[in-house]
Batch of 2 targets.
Target 1
Amino acid sequence: DIQMTQSPSAMSASVGDRVTITCRASQGISHYLAWFQHKPGKVPKRLIYAASILQSGVPSRFSGSGSGTEFTLTISSLQPEDFATYYCLYYNSYPYSFGPGTRLEIK
Amino acid sequence: QVQLVESGGGVVQPGRSLRLSCAASGFTFSASALHWVRQAPGKGLEWVAAISFDGSASYYIDAVKGRFTISRDNSKSTLYLEMNSLRPEDTAVYYCADLIGSRWGQGTLVIVSS
């Protein structure tokens, strides 16, 4: 089974900051990686799929890159509504696997 | 509009059973593989199970294999999760989701406690 790790597990940042979150797979997964944003009491929201394709309706300050075993989610200029927990998801063959999450807090 | 509505959650004693349902509308239910994802209190998202579009194949995480069964009724546009031999560590909000189509239900809370 493929295991996903994320770093950092938590971070604090200020509005306007550029933020990068990393996700690593235990073996190569090509581009089968999605990023989700999850806020308490809300449904997870997909931001990116196929490692770098922006979901329709998601602001362009979000971007994804990577392939194989290392992936990044970048928020170019943090907005107040971006403080949330972010998860990567491997989704090619079963079992699918979420990363443990990165909690992004306000500094 | 697209809707996925879970039901069936509640409080149950360890060792007992519960069946979750997820009623879908607004998209071609019978064309989509569907999933159950859970989030335990204070923990992250965990993929639990999936079923193919026609119900011919199903997949599980090791922690629920042999205890949980995912199924679907395409004539009713409904997804199910039969949960047997429940354990306290199964306590979580359970979401049904079309992960490829990016459609999620609001979740239903399952609490396993004596």
Target 2
Amino acid sequence: DTAVSQTPKYLVTQMGNDKSIKCEQNLGHDTMYWYKQDSKKFLKIMFSYNNKELIINETVPNRFSPKSPDKAHLNLHINSLELGDSAVYFCASSQSQGVTPVNGYTFGSGTRLTVV
Amino acid sequence: AQSVTQPDIHITVSEGASLELRCNYSYGATPYLFWYVQSPGQGLQLLLKYFSGDTLVQGIKGFEAEFKRSQSSFNLRKPSVHWSDAAEYFCAVGERSGFQKLVFGTGTRLLVSP
């Protein structure tokens, strides 16, 4: 059983399209995250949700909209895709409700988005 | 500003040799400290973490790391590197208060030569 699963693993799309990436965790964690890894491997947080509530929203274009239907799911919808959106997007989860994240953060295997 | 620095972009080590990957952080207080490894085309796997207590922490795959408060460092070590250790290694820190988020260093690519 995969702890944090993302779909799809690969996504190739044209500029201007709208796409979604889905993430699910079965660890019972209360906090989920989206990270973006650029072509230089740099990882930067985009969003974080705690029990379906948005708690971290870094400087991300409005074209990116996360949605958390429940604490086990966090989806990322991207409108009007641009070439610069090409990256690997990682979902992660942790038990972080004000306590030490004793198990660290668990990451999905990533979604490689290529915008052409 | 809070930051995490991994000064080595690439490191090449001979198989069987020892390894040390450097990580320095700049935070107002001692954060939580982590090392993750990313194999090609894979997600990030947690190697080890430091919260408090003993400053030498043991992790998976024979890795260890030492927290040095005076140097604001959390260097990763392995006494004998295997070819399968070739990967990208990330140091990360998390704040102790509020809703934590991980802030990553820029990563160090480890190459293992025969």
